[in-house]
Amino acid sequence: MERSVLPCGPVGYVAAVPGDRMQTSQFEEGTTLDRYLLETMRTIGASGQFVNLMQSIALAAKMISSRVNRAGLSGMFGGTGDVNVQGEFVQKLDLYSNTTFLRAMEHGGHTGMVVSEENEEPVRTPEPFHSGKYIVTVDPLDGSSNIDVNATIGTIFGVFRRKTEEGTRAELSDVLRSGRDMIAAGYVVYGAGTVLVLATEFGVHGFTLDPSVGEFFLSHANIRIPKAGMYSCNEAYSPSWHPGVRSFLTHAKSEGWKARYIGSLVADFHRNLLKGGVFLYPATAKNPEGKLRLLYEGFPLAYIIEQAGGAATDGVSPILDRVPRSLHERVPLVIGGAEGVATATDLMKEDPPF
Ligand code: P6P
Predict the structure, then answer these.
(1) What are the structural domain ranges in the chain?
(2) Predicted local confidence at residue 14, as pLDDT
(3) Closest CA to ligand 1's atom 10
(4) Residue 293, CB-side half-sphere exposure with 13 Å CA sphere
(5) Cβ(61) – ligand 1 distance below 6 Å
(6) Ligand 1 pocket residue status of 284, Cβ below 6 Å
């Protein structure tokens, strides 16, 4: 039985030695995200900019979580009447989440530029703040069409170390690059609880927010995706899928897999990561490049799943091998347990492009 996550409480914990997941030291119950970051990064003599970056993301997550949890009471349900660069109606919480995330990233001296789903152009760190060495891609509130029905939604982020000198103007070349250059990724799910999952070369770990003290505590150490036993996709589109996708679903059903689909990528991904599953959002005639976006959905989730022992492809080749040509490029996505993704990809790679 593949181990997926350790129970919370006194948790085993991967020591911060890149590539060495087997060495374990015991952390008492209540290890905070800050302590995890400081003790992990200290072992590699980090400058502290990444710790500050993650603390800024955690602050934004706490603020968004607080607003999401009382959306119905603070008039935050519903749309703004605007349409974003994706052609999607902007929800009030989308706007709040994007503004909150961008503000949290601008003054810490750790980030040079943010690429957000909600902004057509990249957002460079403004004067007088220091243009730091990291580039962040973000979907500030994924699944926001589910806000009004109280389904789980979330924030997805990826981190690159810039190629250009920190302190100078960050360039598109700092972000239009292979997913293999990503140095960290994570997401926050706003559901029954608020859980921040962070993946670095030290593994994948989950931290649960205790709103009574405003701290994230280690709750899911050493996340490894179990062998897949469920599939997630919107089967309403089946008639417009290529035969390879339909063949994979026939295979999954013959294996007795369950079907689970929330229609919120980050929620579907989180369940599949912990329980073992394969998520598919394939290309269709209507969306020949798929619906999901490469820089702030495909890349971060692909980084996380590979660090957790899984896989992610575009139906032909690994997501992380791609080099985006534009900031809001879309990508077909097959992501989850390695064996299931390999089976789906083998069946789909013969499909002609739309
Ligand atoms: P469909 C939500 O709008 C989203 O971008 C993802 O979170 C989700 O996986 C997908 O779209 C759902 O798309 O076409 O099934 O409604």
Answers:
(1) 25-220, 230-348
(2) 45
(3) 263
(4) 23
(5) no
(6) no
Q: What is the mean pLDDT of each run of 10 residues along the chain (354 residues)?
A: 39 45 49 91 78 97 94 73 77 91 96 97 96 97 88 97 96 98 98 96 95 95 94 95 95 97 97 98 92 98 98 97 98 97 94 79
Say yes or no: CB of residue 145 within 6 Å of ligand 1.
Answer: yes
Tell me how crowded residue 236 is: count the other CB atoms within 10 A of its CB.
8
CA of 16 to the centre of ligand 1 (A): 35
What pTM value is reported for the model?
Answer: 0.91
pLDDT score recorded for residue 267: 97
Largest CA distance in the chain: 60
Q: Which fold has domain 25-220?
A: Fructose-1,6-Bisphosphatase; Chain A, domain 1 (3.30.540)
Selecting from 3.40.190.100, 3.40.50.1380, 3.80.10.10, 3.40.190.80, what CATH number does the domain 230-348 have?
3.40.190.80
Half-sphere exposure (CA, 13 Å, Cβ side) for 281? 23
Ligand 1 pocket test, pick from 291, 295, 328, 334 with the greatest ligand atom count within 8 Å of Cβ, gives 291
Q: What distance in Å separates the CA atoms of residue 158 and residue 135, rounded to the nearest whole number?
A: 8
